Amino acid sequence: MSAHTVYENAPLGSLIRYSDGTPRPPARIKKKLAAWENRNGAGRLVRKEPARERPNWISPASFTLHEGDFGSGGVVVLTVRRTYSLDSDLRFEIVERPAIGAVRILQEYGDNAELLHLAQSHEAAERWLTQHRYSNVRLNEVTEDEVGADVVEGRAA
């Protein structure tokens, strides 16, 4: 599916796989493998940005995938996120949608929200918030109605 389809249909917290359609090169060819891994992977959908028009430039709509956190001893040193515009030439697939009862912890940015964490329950979300201090946060539970609307409207993966 296209980037546009993911932007329109995937809820925040969905696991998205992306690919350029080429086969994985052998591990012994390190440079080709690194280039392939740069265009093939997966991440959790954490942000959707609408198109923006400014006097000097136009920014197309985009979405951001969180691919992972790296560090040691419970300290995150590096967070990997990738942002894709809707005109991306990659192919995308919604691998998994958030489960019913899961709770999204969202931080507000103007008219948009960014997913900080996807908790299994409301209690787990509250525990996460006590350990991670963020301002302007709201909790958003995944409901049966949301999942049912995806099925009815043909958006279910």
Q: Can you characterise this structure?
A:
The protein has helices spanning 3-9, 30-38, 122-131, 144-152; strands spanning 15-19, 41-49, 52-53, 58-59, 62-72, 75-85, 91-96, 103-109, 112-119, 137-141. The model has no long low-confidence stretch (mean pLDDT 86). Helices cover 22% and strands 42% of the residues. The chain contains four helices and ten strands. It is globular, with a radius of gyration of 17 Å. The strands form three sheets. It has a five-stranded antiparallel beta sheet with strand order 6-5-2-1-7. A hairpin with a 4-residue loop joins β3 and β4. The chain is of the alpha+beta class and 157 residues long.
Structural class: alpha+beta
Please count the beta strands (DSSP E, at least 2 residues each). Answer: 10
The helicity comes to 10-25%
Task: Give me the side-by-side strand order of the main sheet.
Answer: 6-5-2-1-7
Oligomer: single chain
> Strand-residue fraction?
35-45%
Cα radius of gyration in angstroms = 17 Å
Contiguous uncertain segments of 5+ residues = none
Given the C-alpha coordinates, what overall shape results? globular
Distance between the termini: 11 Å
Question: What does the average pLDDT come to?
Answer: 86
| Helical stretch tally | 4
Biggest sheet layout: 5 strands, antiparallel
SSE order, as H and E?
HEHEEEEEEEEHEH
How would you briefly describe this protein structure?
This protein has 157 residues and is of the alpha+beta class.
Itemize the secondary structure elements and their pairings.
Elements: H1 3-9, E1 15-19, H2 30-38, E2 41-49, E3 52-53, E4 58-59, E5 62-72, E6 75-85, E7 91-96, E8 103-109, E9 112-119, H3 122-131, E10 137-141, H4 144-152
Antiparallel strand pairs: 1-2, 1-7, 2-5, 3-4, 5-6, 8-9, 8-10
